[in-house]
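Exercise 7.
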Amino acid sequence: MARKNNAPVINAASSALDQFKMEVANELGLSNYQNIDKGQLSSRQNGYVGGNMTKKMVAFAEQALAQGQSSAIGNSVPTVTSGQQSQQ
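Solution. The predicted structure, written as tokens, is:
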């Protein structure tokens, strides 16, 4: 049985992440991504969405670090070490 391990670290961010995913998909030419059967898309198309989301989030964090806002990033999400991961 497959386990879902991609839950947001902060549950309240789930809707914002979904909105961000739709915006990135739209930028990539995948309009109406919310209602598309993701199984009908190629893994490359689905991967582009997640990859571009990650790329944008890393760029945002790099910019914040460059502007000296490392405390905002460091305090925003708790770090999970291998011993702290939950076994679901």
